[in-house]
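Allow me, if you will, to draw on your knowledge of protein folds for a short while. The matter concerns a single protein, recorded as an amino acid sequence and a row of backbone structure tokens. Could you please explain, in whatever detail you think fit, how the structure tokens follow from the sequence? I remain grateful for any guidance, and I place the record below:

…
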Amino acid sequence: MKHVGRPRGTGIGPQGRTADGRSVTGRIRARLPTLAPSEARVAEFVLAHPDEVVHMTVGEVAERAGSAESTTVRTCRTLGFSGFQDLKISLAGETKSLTTYAYGGDIEPTDAPGDVLVKVMGLSAEIIRDAASSIDPEAFEAAVTLLDAASEIIIIGFGASLNVARGARDQFSSIGLKATAPEETNLKYLRCRTAPPTAAALIISHTGATRDTIRCAEALTSRDVPTVAITSFPRTRLTERVDHALVASGRELSFRFESLSGRLAHLAVVDALYLALARANPERSRDALDVYFEVDSSWRL
């Protein structure tokens, strides 16, 4: 008997994911900056009320979003769904998954400490999942190839991103890569202005719009140094200036510091780069880690 599947579209999985492994809301968030204003209103309404949308008609969604029915259907197709019904079925799978894990909302004033713990852990997991769905796998593979072949990896980060840059420097150094992360602003810019073309740069920025970050990216470009960015937004001055952009976008949480969700996702991307680079040259990584663990153990009592 021929198997009859659901209509062609994203193809929702058992954990509220599309057939390509992305979460439904993660896919929508990743494409939000590329939508026309009328389509963005529909997408933002869906993101704000996913559990309601699964029980609404296309007309009800259009009215609540301040848009036309035709625009609502067009938005669904622009987002990669076959239509409004496909979006609803996909959302139903995801909202069921979120309910199962009981982390569907932000922190409330009446929440007990135990509830806060469960919500923060769950929402943090959601951030990582959404970030994973927004990164282009081909861009990630190209970034690994570029960084692995570089004579030196210059890691640039300002503000909260500096801590991510420090972590990347330490992780990459532990597997035998020459990695630096200048601390002071003037030293960052000086290193970018004097870097050789054989080096590569990893630029980490939540917004992709920090003035000093852009100055460093432009300085690296002037030196023909290949660049990779880890950032949270797809269309920024930074992404326009680098060779490969790893866009790890996720939900910002209203009760947390503005860039914390971005930093959490960026740390996960650094971890993924570290493991991929270690696998790219196992012998180099093994030799360097042997020395690292020998030195580390000598400091233990």
Q: What stands out?
A: The chain is about 55% helix and 5% strand. Residues 64 and 152 are 53 Å apart (CA to CA). The chain has two domains: 8-101, 137-298. Confidence is low (pLDDT under 50) at residues 1-21, 97-104, 253-258.
